[in-house]
Amino acid sequence: MKNVTDSFVSLGHWPSAGSFGFNTDILATNPINLSVVFGVLIFFGKGVLNDLLDNRKQRILSTIQNSEELRRGVIEQLERARARLRKVEMEADEYRMNGYFEIEREKENLINATCDSLERLENYKNETLHFEQQRAISQVRQRVFQQALQGALGILNSCLNSELHFRTIRANIGILGAMKEITD
């Protein structure tokens, strides 16, 4: 410890040139040691440092080139996506327009079908009314005929007495008998 303190105290004291030993004077030996270390590092480390820097430079350049290629690829993909989007939008507009036309056509078809159904129902209604009118007329005719027949029978019954009635029956029997003889 005393040697270290002595070396700080006696800065101007240098050991003799003829002796070999360690110089414990830190302030005197450090600049020399450092310059030797730096010289050796620069001489031997220059190639290694240049190689490291060149490798780093090449990696940075390749990264930049890869980034540029990726950028170009992304730009191409973006352009393709935009073109596809435009195409899909055009198709969507076309489908939308076709859909509107289809809806209008279906609406017209539905209206026409409804009109046809209404017309058929109207015809069926008219036919049903005509049938019911004919049936009612037939019923009225039948009733009138029945009433006329009953009235005629009533008049005949009141006008015919039993003798006239027997004569009419005999005349009819005679006509039937004559017809039988003709056919035989």
Structural class based on helices, strands and sheet pairing: mainly alpha
Beta strand %: under 5%
Distance between the termini: 183 Å
Biggest sheet details: none
The count of domains is 1
Q: Low-confidence runs (pLDDT<50, min 5 residues)?
A: 1-5, 7-15
Mean pLDDT: 83
Oligomer: single chain
How many strand units? 0
Shape: rod-shaped
Our Rg estimate from Cα atoms comes to 69 Å
Could you walk me through the main structural features you see in this protein, from its secondary elements to its overall organization?
This protein has one domain (36-176). 89% of the residues lie in helices and 0% in strands. It has three helices and no strands. The protein is rod-shaped. InterPro entries: ATP_synth_b/b'su_bac/chlpt (IPR002146). Belongs to the ATPase B chain family. This is ATP synthase CF0 subunit I. The chain crosses the membrane at residues 32-49.
Q: How are the SSEs ordered, and which strands pair?
A:
Elements: H1 2-9, H2 26-159, H3 162-183
Summarize the structure.
With 184 residues, the chain is mainly α. The chain has 3 helices and no strands.
Supply the key terms.
184 residues; mainly alpha; 3 helices; rod-shaped; disordered N terminus
